[in-house]
Amino acid sequence: MPHDSHSAPQAPADLRSLVSRMTLEEKVGQLLVLHVYGHHATDPDPADIEANERELGVRTAAEAIAKYRPGGLIYFGWAHNTRDPRQLATLSNDVQRAALGQSPGVPLLLTIDQEHGVVARVGAPATLLPGAMALGAGGSRDDVREAARIAGAELRALGVRQNYAPSADVNVNPANPVIGVRSFGAGPDAVADFVTAQIEGYRAAGIASAAKHFPGHGDTETDSHSALPTIHHSREQWEELDAPPFRAALAAGVDAVMTAHLVVPALDPAMEPATLSYPIVTGVLREQLGHDGLIVTDSLSMQGVRTTYGDDRVAVLALKAGVDQLLHPPRPELARNAVVEAVREGELSEERLDASVLRVLELKARLGLFEDPYVPLDGLDEAVGGGAHRAAADRIAEGTTTLLRDDGGLLPLSPDRHVELLVVGADPVSPTGTTGPPTAVLATALGELGFRAEAVSTGMEPSKEAVEAAVAAAAGRDAVLVTTYDVTAGDAQHGLVSALAATGVPVVTLAVRTPQDLPAAAAALATYSWTDVELRAAARVLAGRARPRGRLPVPVPHPDDPGQVLYPIGHGLSYEPYATAD
User: Fold this and answer.
1) 261 is a catalytic site residue
2) Which in 219, 237, 277, 286 has the greatest CB count within 10 A?
3) Stretch 223-251: mean pLDDT
4) Does the active-site annotation cover 268?
5) Domain residue extents for the chain
6) Mean pLDDT, to the nearest integer, of 12-30?
7) pTM for this entry
8) Tell me: domain 15-383, CATH 3.20.20.300, correct?
9) pLDDT, tens digit, for every residue of 439-452?
10) Residues in domain Glycoside hydrolase family 3 C-terminal (predicted)?
11) Who contacts 408 (Cβ-Cβ below 8 Å, separation ≥6)?
12) Which one is catalytic: 298, 311, 517, 532?
Protein backbone atom coordinates (compact mmCIF):
# COMPACT_ATOMS: atom_id res chain seq x y z
CA MET A 1 0.00 0.00 0.00
CA PRO A 2 1.61 3.27 -1.06
CA HIS A 3 2.10 5.97 1.56
CA ASP A 4 3.45 9.44 0.93
CA SER A 5 2.88 13.09 1.75
CA HIS A 6 -0.34 13.03 -0.25
CA SER A 7 -1.94 10.12 1.62
CA ALA A 8 -5.73 10.40 1.73
CA PRO A 9 -7.21 12.36 4.64
CA GLN A 10 -9.82 10.91 6.90
CA ALA A 11 -13.38 11.37 5.69
CA PRO A 12 -14.53 14.91 6.54
CA ALA A 13 -16.92 15.03 9.46
CA ASP A 14 -19.04 17.40 7.44
CA LEU A 15 -19.04 16.96 3.68
CA ARG A 16 -21.06 20.14 3.37
CA SER A 17 -18.12 22.00 4.86
CA LEU A 18 -15.87 20.54 2.16
CA VAL A 19 -18.29 21.70 -0.53
CA SER A 20 -18.39 25.20 0.98
CA ARG A 21 -14.60 25.48 0.68
CA MET A 22 -14.57 24.66 -3.03
CA THR A 23 -14.40 27.26 -5.75
CA LEU A 24 -17.08 27.23 -8.44
CA GLU A 25 -14.63 25.65 -10.88
CA GLU A 26 -13.75 22.92 -8.38
CA LYS A 27 -17.42 22.15 -7.82
CA VAL A 28 -18.01 21.81 -11.55
CA GLY A 29 -14.94 19.59 -11.77
CA GLN A 30 -16.42 17.18 -9.20
CA LEU A 31 -19.33 16.61 -11.58
CA LEU A 32 -17.07 15.55 -14.47
CA VAL A 33 -16.10 11.93 -15.16
CA LEU A 34 -13.36 12.20 -17.78
CA HIS A 35 -11.45 9.81 -19.96
CA VAL A 36 -7.72 10.21 -20.45
CA TYR A 37 -5.37 8.46 -22.83
CA GLY A 38 -2.47 6.35 -21.71
CA HIS A 39 -1.34 3.53 -19.47
CA HIS A 40 0.62 5.79 -17.14
CA ALA A 41 -0.38 8.88 -15.14
CA THR A 42 2.71 10.93 -16.03
CA ASP A 43 4.52 9.07 -18.83
CA PRO A 44 2.09 7.82 -21.48
CA ASP A 45 3.13 6.81 -24.98
CA PRO A 46 3.68 9.63 -27.53
CA ALA A 47 0.47 8.83 -29.42
CA ASP A 48 -1.49 9.10 -26.17
CA ILE A 49 0.16 12.43 -25.37
CA GLU A 50 -1.01 13.71 -28.75
CA ALA A 51 -4.56 12.46 -28.15
CA ASN A 52 -4.66 14.09 -24.71
CA GLU A 53 -3.41 17.38 -26.13
CA ARG A 54 -5.99 17.26 -28.91
CA GLU A 55 -9.01 16.42 -26.76
CA LEU A 56 -8.13 17.64 -23.26
CA GLY A 57 -5.53 20.33 -23.79
CA VAL A 58 -3.04 18.49 -21.55
CA ARG A 59 -0.35 15.87 -22.03
CA THR A 60 -1.07 13.36 -19.26
CA ALA A 61 -3.66 12.08 -16.81
CA ALA A 62 -1.93 13.92 -13.96
CA GLU A 63 -2.13 17.17 -15.91
CA ALA A 64 -5.81 16.56 -16.68
CA ILE A 65 -6.49 16.13 -12.97
CA ALA A 66 -4.67 19.35 -12.15
CA LYS A 67 -6.53 21.26 -14.86
CA TYR A 68 -10.07 19.95 -14.44
CA ARG A 69 -10.15 18.66 -10.82
CA PRO A 70 -12.54 15.93 -12.02
CA GLY A 71 -14.69 13.94 -9.65
CA GLY A 72 -13.84 10.76 -11.51
CA LEU A 73 -12.18 9.04 -14.44
CA ILE A 74 -13.52 6.28 -16.70
CA TYR A 75 -11.14 3.65 -18.04
CA PHE A 76 -11.29 2.38 -21.64
CA GLY A 77 -9.30 -0.17 -23.56
CA TRP A 78 -9.26 2.06 -26.65
CA ALA A 79 -7.75 4.84 -24.53
CA HIS A 80 -4.92 2.42 -23.67
CA ASN A 81 -5.70 2.50 -19.95
CA THR A 82 -5.89 -1.27 -19.45
CA ARG A 83 -2.78 -3.25 -20.35
CA ASP A 84 -2.51 -5.66 -17.42
CA PRO A 85 -3.51 -5.81 -13.75
CA ARG A 86 -0.30 -4.39 -12.28
CA GLN A 87 -0.24 -1.52 -14.77
CA LEU A 88 -3.90 -0.69 -14.13
CA ALA A 89 -3.60 -0.84 -10.35
CA THR A 90 -0.50 1.36 -10.54
CA LEU A 91 -2.34 3.84 -12.77
CA SER A 92 -5.21 3.92 -10.27
CA ASN A 93 -2.84 4.66 -7.40
CA ASP A 94 -0.98 7.32 -9.35
CA VAL A 95 -4.09 9.23 -10.46
CA GLN A 96 -5.41 9.09 -6.90
CA ARG A 97 -2.09 10.50 -5.70
CA ALA A 98 -2.37 13.27 -8.29
CA ALA A 99 -5.91 14.14 -7.13
CA LEU A 100 -4.96 14.14 -3.47
CA GLY A 101 -2.02 16.40 -4.23
CA GLN A 102 -4.44 19.20 -5.10
CA SER A 103 -6.05 21.47 -2.56
CA PRO A 104 -8.55 20.45 -1.36
CA GLY A 105 -7.44 16.86 -1.85
CA VAL A 106 -10.48 14.87 -2.94
CA PRO A 107 -10.12 11.23 -4.07
CA LEU A 108 -11.28 10.22 -7.50
CA LEU A 109 -14.16 7.87 -8.23
CA LEU A 110 -12.58 5.51 -10.79
CA THR A 111 -15.19 3.92 -13.04
CA ILE A 112 -15.52 1.48 -15.93
CA ASP A 113 -17.98 -0.30 -18.22
CA GLN A 114 -17.23 -3.92 -17.34
CA GLU A 115 -20.60 -5.54 -18.03
CA HIS A 116 -18.89 -8.77 -19.19
CA GLY A 117 -20.05 -10.70 -22.23
CA VAL A 118 -19.82 -8.41 -25.25
CA VAL A 119 -18.91 -5.29 -23.23
CA ALA A 120 -15.70 -5.51 -21.23
CA ARG A 121 -12.78 -3.09 -20.92
CA VAL A 122 -10.44 -5.28 -18.87
CA GLY A 123 -9.41 -8.56 -20.46
CA ALA A 124 -7.33 -11.56 -19.51
CA PRO A 125 -5.75 -12.35 -17.16
CA ALA A 126 -8.79 -10.85 -15.40
CA THR A 127 -11.67 -13.30 -15.09
CA LEU A 128 -14.14 -12.94 -17.96
CA LEU A 129 -17.69 -13.89 -17.07
CA PRO A 130 -20.92 -14.46 -19.01
CA GLY A 131 -22.84 -11.32 -19.92
CA ALA A 132 -26.33 -10.38 -18.84
CA MET A 133 -28.45 -12.34 -21.33
CA ALA A 134 -26.35 -15.45 -20.81
CA LEU A 135 -26.88 -15.09 -17.06
CA GLY A 136 -30.58 -14.60 -17.75
CA ALA A 137 -30.56 -17.88 -19.67
CA GLY A 138 -28.84 -19.56 -16.74
CA GLY A 139 -31.74 -18.48 -14.56
CA SER A 140 -29.80 -18.66 -11.30
CA ARG A 141 -30.06 -15.66 -9.02
CA ASP A 142 -27.15 -17.03 -7.00
CA ASP A 143 -24.97 -17.24 -10.11
CA VAL A 144 -25.86 -13.67 -11.10
CA ARG A 145 -24.93 -12.43 -7.65
CA GLU A 146 -21.70 -14.47 -7.59
CA ALA A 147 -20.68 -13.26 -11.07
CA ALA A 148 -21.08 -9.66 -9.93
CA ARG A 149 -19.19 -10.33 -6.70
CA ILE A 150 -16.27 -11.81 -8.64
CA ALA A 151 -16.31 -9.00 -11.19
CA GLY A 152 -16.51 -6.42 -8.44
CA ALA A 153 -13.74 -7.97 -6.35
CA GLU A 154 -11.36 -7.91 -9.30
CA LEU A 155 -12.26 -4.33 -10.21
CA ARG A 156 -11.70 -3.23 -6.64
CA ALA A 157 -8.27 -4.88 -6.64
CA LEU A 158 -7.47 -2.72 -9.69
CA GLY A 159 -8.57 0.49 -7.96
CA VAL A 160 -11.90 0.78 -9.80
CA ARG A 161 -14.72 1.54 -7.39
CA GLN A 162 -17.76 1.93 -9.66
CA ASN A 163 -18.98 -0.30 -12.46
CA TYR A 164 -21.57 1.05 -14.87
CA ALA A 165 -23.76 -2.03 -14.50
CA PRO A 166 -26.26 -3.65 -14.35
CA SER A 167 -28.31 -3.08 -17.46
CA ALA A 168 -31.89 -2.73 -16.25
CA ASP A 169 -33.20 -2.55 -19.82
CA VAL A 170 -35.93 -5.04 -20.73
CA ASN A 171 -35.05 -6.16 -24.25
CA VAL A 172 -38.51 -6.56 -25.72
CA ASN A 173 -37.37 -5.72 -29.27
CA PRO A 174 -35.33 -8.49 -30.97
CA ALA A 175 -34.04 -5.90 -33.48
CA ASN A 176 -32.52 -3.75 -30.74
CA PRO A 177 -29.04 -2.84 -32.07
CA VAL A 178 -27.55 -1.34 -28.91
CA ILE A 179 -28.82 -3.41 -25.96
CA GLY A 180 -29.61 -6.94 -27.14
CA VAL A 181 -27.57 -9.46 -25.15
CA ARG A 182 -26.54 -6.72 -22.70
CA SER A 183 -30.02 -7.17 -21.17
CA PHE A 184 -30.98 -10.04 -18.88
CA GLY A 185 -34.00 -10.70 -21.09
CA ALA A 186 -37.48 -9.75 -22.19
CA GLY A 187 -39.37 -10.49 -18.97
CA PRO A 188 -39.65 -7.43 -16.67
CA ASP A 189 -39.93 -9.47 -13.48
CA ALA A 190 -36.97 -11.70 -14.31
CA VAL A 191 -34.85 -8.70 -15.29
CA ALA A 192 -35.81 -6.98 -12.05
CA ASP A 193 -34.79 -10.04 -10.04
CA PHE A 194 -31.40 -10.34 -11.73
CA VAL A 195 -30.74 -6.61 -11.51
CA THR A 196 -31.27 -6.86 -7.77
CA ALA A 197 -28.93 -9.85 -7.52
CA GLN A 198 -26.21 -8.08 -9.46
CA ILE A 199 -26.45 -4.98 -7.27
CA GLU A 200 -26.11 -7.25 -4.22
CA GLY A 201 -23.04 -8.89 -5.70
CA TYR A 202 -21.30 -5.61 -6.44
CA ARG A 203 -22.12 -4.30 -2.98
CA ALA A 204 -20.63 -7.43 -1.40
CA ALA A 205 -17.40 -6.64 -3.26
CA GLY A 206 -17.38 -3.00 -2.14
CA ILE A 207 -18.20 -1.69 -5.61
CA ALA A 208 -20.78 0.95 -6.50
CA SER A 209 -23.28 -0.10 -9.17
CA ALA A 210 -25.28 1.94 -11.67
CA ALA A 211 -28.60 0.78 -13.12
CA LYS A 212 -28.92 1.79 -16.76
CA HIS A 213 -30.28 3.12 -19.11
CA PHE A 214 -33.16 5.03 -17.53
CA PRO A 215 -36.04 5.15 -18.41
CA GLY A 216 -35.35 1.99 -20.46
CA HIS A 217 -33.56 1.29 -23.74
CA GLY A 218 -35.07 -2.10 -24.49
CA ASP A 219 -37.50 -1.26 -27.31
CA THR A 220 -35.60 0.66 -29.94
CA GLU A 221 -34.28 -0.05 -33.41
CA THR A 222 -31.91 2.93 -33.26
CA ASP A 223 -28.48 2.97 -31.65
CA SER A 224 -28.12 6.06 -29.44
CA HIS A 225 -24.38 6.05 -30.14
CA SER A 226 -25.19 7.29 -33.65
CA ALA A 227 -28.68 8.84 -33.50
CA LEU A 228 -31.51 9.77 -31.12
CA PRO A 229 -34.02 6.91 -30.64
CA THR A 230 -37.68 7.28 -29.69
CA ILE A 231 -39.49 4.86 -27.38
CA HIS A 232 -43.16 4.72 -28.34
CA HIS A 233 -44.47 3.02 -25.20
CA SER A 234 -47.52 4.52 -23.55
CA ARG A 235 -47.22 5.47 -19.90
CA GLU A 236 -49.00 2.24 -19.01
CA GLN A 237 -46.64 0.18 -21.15
CA TRP A 238 -43.67 1.93 -19.56
CA GLU A 239 -44.97 1.12 -16.08
CA GLU A 240 -45.52 -2.52 -17.06
CA LEU A 241 -42.43 -3.19 -19.21
CA ASP A 242 -39.63 -0.71 -18.46
CA ALA A 243 -40.12 0.49 -14.91
CA PRO A 244 -40.01 -2.76 -12.84
CA PRO A 245 -36.23 -3.31 -13.02
CA PHE A 246 -35.52 0.30 -12.10
CA ARG A 247 -37.98 0.15 -9.21
CA ALA A 248 -36.23 -3.03 -8.06
CA ALA A 249 -32.82 -1.40 -8.39
CA LEU A 250 -33.90 1.53 -6.22
CA ALA A 251 -35.41 -0.83 -3.66
CA ALA A 252 -32.08 -2.68 -3.57
CA GLY A 253 -30.26 0.57 -2.83
CA VAL A 254 -28.47 0.98 -6.14
CA ASP A 255 -25.74 3.62 -5.86
CA ALA A 256 -26.47 5.40 -9.14
CA VAL A 257 -28.80 5.47 -12.10
CA MET A 258 -27.54 6.18 -15.61
CA THR A 259 -29.79 8.07 -18.01
CA ALA A 260 -30.41 7.15 -21.64
CA HIS A 261 -30.10 9.35 -24.70
CA LEU A 262 -33.57 8.67 -26.08
CA VAL A 263 -36.98 10.31 -26.37
CA VAL A 264 -40.04 8.97 -24.52
CA PRO A 265 -43.03 11.15 -25.43
CA ALA A 266 -45.25 9.44 -22.85
CA LEU A 267 -42.93 10.67 -20.09
CA ASP A 268 -41.96 14.00 -21.63
CA PRO A 269 -44.41 15.41 -24.20
CA ALA A 270 -41.81 18.05 -25.12
CA MET A 271 -39.75 15.13 -26.47
CA GLU A 272 -36.47 16.09 -24.89
CA PRO A 273 -33.90 13.29 -24.62
CA ALA A 274 -34.21 11.61 -21.22
CA THR A 275 -30.72 12.75 -20.20
CA LEU A 276 -31.81 16.36 -20.71
CA SER A 277 -35.43 16.01 -19.57
CA TYR A 278 -36.51 17.60 -16.28
CA PRO A 279 -39.85 15.72 -16.38
CA ILE A 280 -38.02 12.38 -16.68
CA VAL A 281 -34.91 12.90 -14.51
CA THR A 282 -36.44 14.98 -11.76
CA GLY A 283 -40.16 14.35 -12.25
CA VAL A 284 -40.14 10.58 -12.71
CA LEU A 285 -36.81 9.33 -11.32
CA ARG A 286 -36.38 11.68 -8.37
CA GLU A 287 -39.92 12.59 -7.37
CA GLN A 288 -42.10 9.66 -8.47
CA LEU A 289 -39.67 6.77 -7.98
CA GLY A 290 -37.93 8.40 -5.03
CA HIS A 291 -34.29 8.06 -6.10
CA ASP A 292 -32.14 10.27 -3.89
CA GLY A 293 -28.78 8.84 -4.96
CA LEU A 294 -26.46 9.72 -7.80
CA ILE A 295 -27.67 10.22 -11.37
CA VAL A 296 -25.07 10.01 -14.13
CA THR A 297 -25.48 10.64 -17.83
CA ASP A 298 -24.64 8.06 -20.43
CA SER A 299 -21.55 9.09 -22.37
CA LEU A 300 -21.93 12.64 -23.63
CA SER A 301 -19.72 11.69 -26.58
CA MET A 302 -22.63 9.74 -28.08
CA GLN A 303 -24.34 11.32 -31.07
CA GLY A 304 -27.79 10.77 -29.55
CA VAL A 305 -27.43 14.07 -27.67
CA ARG A 306 -24.23 15.57 -29.01
CA THR A 307 -25.30 16.42 -32.56
CA THR A 308 -28.51 18.26 -31.73
CA TYR A 309 -27.53 20.10 -28.58
CA GLY A 310 -23.79 20.74 -28.84
CA ASP A 311 -20.98 19.85 -26.47
CA ASP A 312 -21.45 22.96 -24.35
CA ARG A 313 -25.21 23.16 -23.97
CA VAL A 314 -25.69 19.45 -23.37
CA ALA A 315 -23.73 19.69 -20.11
CA VAL A 316 -25.84 22.60 -18.86
CA LEU A 317 -29.13 21.03 -19.93
CA ALA A 318 -28.29 17.74 -18.23
CA LEU A 319 -27.63 19.49 -14.92
CA LYS A 320 -30.80 21.53 -15.29
CA ALA A 321 -32.71 18.29 -15.81
CA GLY A 322 -31.43 17.00 -12.47
CA VAL A 323 -28.39 14.91 -13.42
CA ASP A 324 -25.43 14.91 -11.02
CA GLN A 325 -22.49 13.63 -13.09
CA LEU A 326 -21.46 14.39 -16.66
CA LEU A 327 -19.89 11.24 -18.07
CA HIS A 328 -17.23 11.35 -20.76
CA PRO A 329 -17.82 14.83 -22.24
CA PRO A 330 -15.94 14.89 -25.57
CA ARG A 331 -14.62 18.41 -25.00
CA PRO A 332 -14.44 18.77 -21.23
CA GLU A 333 -13.05 22.31 -21.24
CA LEU A 334 -16.02 23.48 -23.27
CA ALA A 335 -18.46 21.61 -21.01
CA ARG A 336 -16.87 22.90 -17.81
CA ASN A 337 -16.77 26.50 -19.00
CA ALA A 338 -20.39 26.33 -20.15
CA VAL A 339 -21.54 25.15 -16.71
CA VAL A 340 -19.46 27.80 -14.93
CA GLU A 341 -20.93 30.48 -17.19
CA ALA A 342 -24.47 29.16 -16.66
CA VAL A 343 -24.04 29.53 -12.90
CA ARG A 344 -22.55 33.00 -13.18
CA GLU A 345 -25.40 34.12 -15.43
CA GLY A 346 -28.06 32.63 -13.15
CA GLU A 347 -29.25 29.89 -15.49
CA LEU A 348 -28.08 27.34 -12.90
CA SER A 349 -27.95 28.11 -9.21
CA GLU A 350 -24.85 27.30 -7.19
CA GLU A 351 -27.14 25.63 -4.65
CA ARG A 352 -28.26 23.25 -7.41
CA LEU A 353 -24.60 22.50 -8.13
CA ASP A 354 -23.86 21.99 -4.43
CA ALA A 355 -26.55 19.31 -4.15
CA SER A 356 -24.92 17.27 -6.92
CA VAL A 357 -21.40 17.75 -5.56
CA LEU A 358 -22.60 16.56 -2.17
CA ARG A 359 -24.05 13.37 -3.70
CA VAL A 360 -20.72 12.68 -5.42
CA LEU A 361 -18.80 13.17 -2.18
CA GLU A 362 -21.27 11.07 -0.19
CA LEU A 363 -20.77 8.15 -2.55
CA LYS A 364 -17.00 8.47 -2.26
CA ALA A 365 -17.33 8.51 1.52
CA ARG A 366 -19.57 5.41 1.53
CA LEU A 367 -16.98 3.59 -0.57
CA GLY A 368 -14.25 4.48 1.92
CA LEU A 369 -12.25 6.49 -0.58
CA PHE A 370 -11.42 9.28 1.86
CA GLU A 371 -9.87 6.77 4.26
CA ASP A 372 -8.17 4.46 1.78
CA PRO A 373 -8.10 5.38 -1.92
CA TYR A 374 -5.12 3.18 -2.82
CA VAL A 375 -4.83 -0.52 -3.65
CA PRO A 376 -1.99 -2.92 -2.80
CA LEU A 377 0.12 -4.26 -5.66
CA ASP A 378 1.03 -7.45 -3.84
CA GLY A 379 -1.15 -10.47 -4.51
CA LEU A 380 -2.67 -9.18 -7.76
CA ASP A 381 -2.09 -12.47 -9.59
CA GLU A 382 -4.49 -14.25 -7.27
CA ALA A 383 -6.89 -11.34 -6.75
CA VAL A 384 -7.36 -10.78 -10.50
CA GLY A 385 -7.95 -13.93 -12.54
CA GLY A 386 -7.16 -16.40 -9.77
CA GLY A 387 -8.01 -20.07 -10.12
CA ALA A 388 -11.12 -19.98 -7.95
CA HIS A 389 -12.61 -17.12 -9.95
CA ARG A 390 -11.88 -18.79 -13.30
CA ALA A 391 -13.40 -22.06 -12.13
CA ALA A 392 -16.53 -20.24 -10.98
CA ALA A 393 -16.79 -18.48 -14.35
CA ASP A 394 -16.60 -21.82 -16.19
CA ARG A 395 -19.21 -23.35 -13.92
CA ILE A 396 -21.59 -20.41 -14.33
CA ALA A 397 -21.12 -20.38 -18.12
CA GLU A 398 -22.01 -24.07 -18.40
CA GLY A 399 -25.43 -23.28 -17.01
CA THR A 400 -26.11 -20.65 -19.67
CA THR A 401 -25.60 -22.59 -22.93
CA THR A 402 -29.05 -23.09 -24.43
CA LEU A 403 -30.01 -25.99 -26.70
CA LEU A 404 -32.80 -24.79 -28.99
CA ARG A 405 -33.08 -27.71 -31.41
CA ASP A 406 -31.69 -31.23 -31.64
CA ASP A 407 -33.41 -33.06 -34.48
CA GLY A 408 -32.75 -36.78 -34.39
CA GLY A 409 -30.77 -36.63 -31.16
CA LEU A 410 -27.54 -35.60 -32.83
CA LEU A 411 -26.11 -34.22 -29.60
CA PRO A 412 -24.05 -34.71 -27.61
CA LEU A 413 -21.18 -35.37 -29.97
CA SER A 414 -18.99 -38.34 -29.17
CA PRO A 415 -15.24 -38.65 -29.86
CA ASP A 416 -16.04 -42.24 -30.91
CA ARG A 417 -18.70 -41.33 -33.50
CA HIS A 418 -17.75 -37.74 -34.38
CA VAL A 419 -13.99 -37.83 -34.55
CA GLU A 420 -13.50 -35.37 -37.39
CA LEU A 421 -15.15 -31.98 -36.93
CA LEU A 422 -15.17 -28.82 -39.01
CA VAL A 423 -15.82 -25.44 -37.35
CA VAL A 424 -16.80 -22.65 -39.76
CA GLY A 425 -18.78 -19.46 -39.67
CA ALA A 426 -18.82 -15.86 -38.58
CA ASP A 427 -15.80 -14.46 -36.81
CA PRO A 428 -16.90 -11.08 -35.42
CA VAL A 429 -14.35 -8.69 -34.00
CA SER A 430 -13.13 -10.22 -30.80
CA PRO A 431 -14.43 -8.58 -27.61
CA THR A 432 -11.97 -7.92 -24.83
CA GLY A 433 -10.79 -11.13 -23.26
CA THR A 434 -11.22 -13.35 -26.33
CA THR A 435 -8.03 -15.09 -27.41
CA GLY A 436 -9.01 -15.40 -31.05
CA PRO A 437 -11.81 -15.79 -33.60
CA PRO A 438 -14.73 -17.85 -32.27
CA THR A 439 -14.19 -20.61 -34.84
CA ALA A 440 -10.58 -21.04 -33.69
CA VAL A 441 -11.42 -20.83 -29.97
CA LEU A 442 -14.20 -23.40 -30.36
CA ALA A 443 -12.03 -25.75 -32.43
CA THR A 444 -9.23 -25.53 -29.85
CA ALA A 445 -11.63 -26.26 -26.98
CA LEU A 446 -13.04 -29.29 -28.82
CA GLY A 447 -9.53 -30.50 -29.59
CA GLU A 448 -8.76 -30.45 -25.88
CA LEU A 449 -11.82 -32.66 -25.35
CA GLY A 450 -10.61 -35.39 -27.69
CA PHE A 451 -11.91 -34.35 -31.12
CA ARG A 452 -9.98 -33.50 -34.25
CA ALA A 453 -11.43 -30.10 -35.11
CA GLU A 454 -10.34 -27.76 -37.90
CA ALA A 455 -11.39 -24.09 -37.99
CA VAL A 456 -12.23 -22.29 -41.24
CA SER A 457 -13.43 -18.70 -41.04
CA THR A 458 -16.08 -17.84 -43.62
CA GLY A 459 -16.64 -14.28 -42.42
CA MET A 460 -19.65 -12.27 -41.39
CA GLU A 461 -21.00 -12.23 -44.96
CA PRO A 462 -19.70 -15.44 -46.55
CA SER A 463 -18.95 -15.05 -50.23
CA LYS A 464 -19.74 -17.69 -52.86
CA GLU A 465 -16.10 -18.70 -52.79
CA ALA A 466 -16.08 -18.97 -48.97
CA VAL A 467 -19.19 -21.16 -49.05
CA GLU A 468 -17.68 -23.41 -51.70
CA ALA A 469 -14.48 -23.75 -49.67
CA ALA A 470 -16.47 -24.65 -46.55
CA VAL A 471 -18.48 -27.27 -48.46
CA ALA A 472 -15.26 -28.79 -49.79
CA ALA A 473 -13.74 -28.83 -46.31
CA ALA A 474 -16.85 -30.59 -44.96
CA ALA A 475 -16.17 -33.70 -47.05
CA GLY A 476 -15.35 -36.65 -44.83
CA ARG A 477 -16.26 -34.86 -41.59
CA ASP A 478 -18.49 -36.41 -38.99
CA ALA A 479 -20.16 -33.09 -38.15
CA VAL A 480 -19.89 -29.39 -38.99
CA LEU A 481 -20.30 -26.65 -36.40
CA VAL A 482 -21.29 -23.20 -37.69
CA THR A 483 -20.99 -20.03 -35.62
CA THR A 484 -23.66 -17.51 -36.60
CA TYR A 485 -23.88 -13.81 -35.77
CA ASP A 486 -27.07 -11.72 -35.90
CA VAL A 487 -28.57 -13.58 -38.85
CA THR A 488 -31.37 -11.71 -40.61
CA ALA A 489 -33.69 -12.54 -43.52
CA GLY A 490 -31.69 -12.91 -46.71
CA ASP A 491 -28.41 -13.05 -44.80
CA ALA A 492 -25.62 -14.91 -46.60
CA GLN A 493 -25.10 -16.96 -43.44
CA HIS A 494 -28.36 -18.77 -44.29
CA GLY A 495 -26.84 -19.86 -47.59
CA LEU A 496 -23.73 -21.16 -45.85
CA VAL A 497 -25.73 -23.34 -43.47
CA SER A 498 -28.03 -24.59 -46.24
CA ALA A 499 -25.09 -25.50 -48.47
CA LEU A 500 -23.41 -27.39 -45.66
CA ALA A 501 -26.64 -29.20 -44.73
CA ALA A 502 -27.02 -30.27 -48.38
CA THR A 503 -23.77 -32.25 -48.12
CA GLY A 504 -25.46 -34.70 -45.76
CA VAL A 505 -22.96 -34.01 -42.99
CA PRO A 506 -24.79 -33.21 -39.71
CA VAL A 507 -24.76 -29.44 -39.04
CA VAL A 508 -24.91 -27.74 -35.65
CA THR A 509 -25.27 -23.94 -35.41
CA LEU A 510 -24.10 -21.86 -32.48
CA ALA A 511 -25.63 -18.39 -32.25
CA VAL A 512 -22.76 -16.43 -30.73
CA ARG A 513 -24.73 -13.26 -30.09
CA THR A 514 -28.50 -12.99 -30.38
CA PRO A 515 -30.34 -16.31 -29.94
CA GLN A 516 -32.73 -15.43 -32.77
CA ASP A 517 -30.32 -16.86 -35.38
CA LEU A 518 -32.07 -19.89 -36.86
CA PRO A 519 -30.62 -21.11 -40.15
CA ALA A 520 -31.87 -24.58 -41.06
CA ALA A 521 -29.68 -27.07 -39.19
CA ALA A 522 -30.08 -30.38 -37.40
CA ALA A 523 -29.19 -28.83 -34.07
CA ALA A 524 -28.93 -25.26 -32.77
CA LEU A 525 -27.47 -23.74 -29.61
CA ALA A 526 -27.20 -20.20 -28.26
CA THR A 527 -24.15 -18.96 -26.37
CA TYR A 528 -25.12 -15.23 -26.17
CA SER A 529 -21.52 -14.09 -26.73
CA TRP A 530 -18.30 -15.28 -28.32
CA THR A 531 -15.97 -14.79 -25.37
CA ASP A 532 -13.70 -17.68 -24.44
CA VAL A 533 -15.66 -18.57 -21.31
CA GLU A 534 -18.90 -19.04 -23.27
CA LEU A 535 -17.27 -20.93 -26.15
CA ARG A 536 -15.41 -23.25 -23.79
CA ALA A 537 -18.69 -23.96 -22.00
CA ALA A 538 -20.44 -24.64 -25.32
CA ALA A 539 -17.66 -27.06 -26.27
CA ARG A 540 -18.16 -29.00 -23.03
CA VAL A 541 -21.91 -29.13 -23.69
CA LEU A 542 -21.39 -30.26 -27.28
CA ALA A 543 -18.96 -32.94 -26.12
CA GLY A 544 -21.32 -34.31 -23.49
CA ARG A 545 -19.12 -33.16 -20.63
CA ALA A 546 -21.90 -30.91 -19.33
CA ARG A 547 -25.68 -30.91 -19.60
CA PRO A 548 -27.27 -27.99 -21.45
CA ARG A 549 -29.30 -26.12 -18.84
CA GLY A 550 -29.94 -22.70 -20.37
CA ARG A 551 -33.48 -21.48 -21.01
CA LEU A 552 -34.35 -18.68 -23.41
CA PRO A 553 -34.73 -15.33 -21.59
CA VAL A 554 -36.22 -13.83 -24.78
CA PRO A 555 -38.69 -15.26 -27.30
CA VAL A 556 -37.40 -16.36 -30.70
CA PRO A 557 -39.70 -15.31 -33.54
CA HIS A 558 -40.40 -17.60 -36.48
CA PRO A 559 -37.93 -16.80 -39.28
CA ASP A 560 -40.68 -16.82 -41.91
CA ASP A 561 -43.25 -14.95 -39.80
CA PRO A 562 -41.75 -12.57 -37.22
CA GLY A 563 -45.20 -12.07 -35.72
CA GLN A 564 -45.24 -15.70 -34.58
CA VAL A 565 -43.16 -17.06 -31.72
CA LEU A 566 -41.18 -20.15 -32.64
CA TYR A 567 -39.55 -20.68 -29.25
CA PRO A 568 -41.05 -18.91 -26.20
CA ILE A 569 -39.27 -17.55 -23.15
CA GLY A 570 -38.23 -20.54 -21.06
CA HIS A 571 -37.61 -22.89 -24.00
CA GLY A 572 -34.51 -25.05 -23.79
CA LEU A 573 -33.79 -28.71 -24.44
CA SER A 574 -31.39 -30.87 -22.52
CA TYR A 575 -29.69 -34.23 -22.37
CA GLU A 576 -27.62 -36.13 -19.87
CA PRO A 577 -23.84 -35.87 -20.16
CA TYR A 578 -21.81 -38.97 -20.87
CA ALA A 579 -21.00 -41.11 -17.87
CA THR A 580 -17.31 -40.63 -18.63
CA ALA A 581 -17.60 -36.86 -18.29
CA ASP A 582 -15.04 -35.21 -16.06
Assistant:
1) no
2) 277
3) 91
4) no
5) 15-383, 401-567
6) 90
7) 0.93
8) yes
9) 999 999 999 999 99
10) 402-575
11) 522
12) 298
